Each structure stands twice: as structure tokens, then as C-alpha cells.
Amino acid sequence: MTKPSNLPQKPKRKPTETLRLQGRNIITEDDLDEVFPDDGDVEKPEIYSHRKILHGFVLTLLVALIIASVLTALAVVRGDLKIPGWSHTPTPEATCPAAVHEYPPNDSITVNVYNGTQEEGLAGQTSGLLAKRGYEIGEVASKRMSRTGLTAVIISGPAGEANAFNLQRNIPETEYVADQREDASVDVVLGSQFKQLVPTDSVDQTAGTLSCPRLSPEPTEAAK
């Protein structure tokens, strides 16, 4: 015997009857059925299966591309794979010019004198001494020097190597540094160890090479 249900029974109403509550229409299941009839147009199982296969294929392809990209990047980093334009070009190692230069006349050289120290007036005083030796003085100013403990740094382009060689013979214990200027001018950056010029009668005017102590190899035990 079936027990009577405690749930309230669905009220019966006429098809055209509209339920109202507090002055508002109430939408029922019957109303929805009338507006949205079930025409049986549901997604077929085979179409749903095809979409799942397509989604799986796309996902697999993306994963494969990510793995391939990671492996390629690792190969490039290790140097196993060379890609044009991606490889790092090492900076050329600085070397000291090995050419032998004759000692050029002082009055053929234009010198820019810079003070690389905290001592005021050093560039002006030194440029005056160089002018007395016949050098053409260019710019006289201050310039920051990254290294300490130097007498002076002599700087020139390839065209000014012989002129830089001349200045190295007049200023003791200097270091030559090359740049890419096209003229034959020479920069002299005075360091904290600069004291004075080589006496005029002691300047060595024989042919020789530029001095680059920082680029020269350290002496071995056998050479000491």
C-alpha cells in the first residue's frame, strides 16, 4: 500500500490561466514549455566525440611545441646548436701594439692634458711644461680615471701611436691605451703617482715600442 505523499500537489489550472502573487505574474514550468518547446535538437554523441578528439590533438601539439622550445634553448645555451645571429660574439682581447716607432719631433704632436686626480691645477701645470718642450696643447681639463696608483695613461688612435710613444718617453711609467679616433692627437690622463716629466736631457729618443704594463704577461719564476 502506497503511503500518501506529504508534498503539496501541483495545482491544476486552465491553459490560459495566469498565476499571480502580490500583483505579479508567476512563471511556471508550463509557461516555459510553451515558450521553449522541446524540438529534440540536442548535440549528437558523435559530434561531441569529434570535438574531444580535436581538443586532445591541439593540447598534445601545444605540449610538444613547448618541449621542443625548451630543448632547443638548452642546446643553444650549451653550444650544441648554432643559430645564425643568436651566437654571442666574444669581445676581441685587447693587445698592446707591437710596431716599432721612431721618435717624432715634439712640435708635430697635439696633446690633450687631463687631470685624473683630486689635485687642483695639475693639468694646467703639466700642459705648461709640455708646451715649453714644443708640444701643441689641445684641451686641458679634468677626466675621471677608473684605476688608481698610475703615473699617467697615454691614449691615442692607430694614427697617433708614434706620438703616444713620444709622450711615454717624456712621462715615466705610463700605460698606453688605444681608442678608435682617426686623428693623430694624444690624450694624457695624469694619475695620482705623477710627479714630474723626464728631464729633457734624459729623454730616450731611440726607436722602440709602446708600453702597456697592464696587458703585458706577468713574469714567470724562471724569468725572475
TrEMBL record:
Residues 1-21, 203-224 are annotated as: Disordered. The keyword Transmembrane applies. InterPro entries: LytR/CpsA/Psr_C. Pfam families: LytR_C. The chain crosses the membrane at residues 53-77. The keyword Disulfide bond does not apply. Residues 108-194 form the LytR/CpsA/Psr regulator C-terminal domain. Keywords: Membrane, Transmembrane, Transmembrane helix. This is LytR cell envelope-related transcriptional attenuator. It comes from Crystallibacter crystallopoietes.
